Amino acid sequence: MNASDLVTGAAVDQDKTVELVTNLDRAAVEAKLAQIVTEAKAAGLEDIPTLLGAYAGMSQAELRKRVTLCLHALSASPEHKALFTQLELVELNLSNLG
Predict the structure, then answer these.
(1) What pTM was computed for the model?
(2) According to DSSP H, which parts of 1-98 are helical?
(3) Of 10, 19, 27, 55, which sits most exposed with the smallest number of CB within 10 A?
């Protein structure tokens, strides 16, 4: 990989590269959850939206419990690593919900 690859994004495996973002506010966390729900449904993983429930405005503790359940449900599914990683990102930002 050279400098031009970094600029153009060439030679970057997006499944292995995750930007660590730990300053998401509630709106950003809920937007990320909406994206996760959409991707889970597209992958036929109806249990993930069910486990997350009506997450909008949910307490930090309840959301943490539900995200943990989702992570556990996906932990044995390497084919859903991208979704698992997005849930980990949400988990890292739950402390911002106060």
Answers:
(1) 0.79
(2) 3-8, 26-42, 47-52, 60-74, 81-93
(3) 19
Domain of 73 in residue numbering reads as 21-97
Of 50, 74, 53, whose CA–CA distance to 62 is shortest?
Answer: 53
Q: Which of 56, 59, 38, 60 is nearest to 48 (CA)?
A: 38
The position carrying tokens 């449900």 is 73
Domains of the chain: total: 1
CA 76 to chain CA mean position, Å: 16
The pLDDT-based confidence of 52 (bands split at 50, 70, 90) is: very high
72-89 burial code (b ≥16 CB/10 A, e <16) = ebbeeeeebeebbebbeb
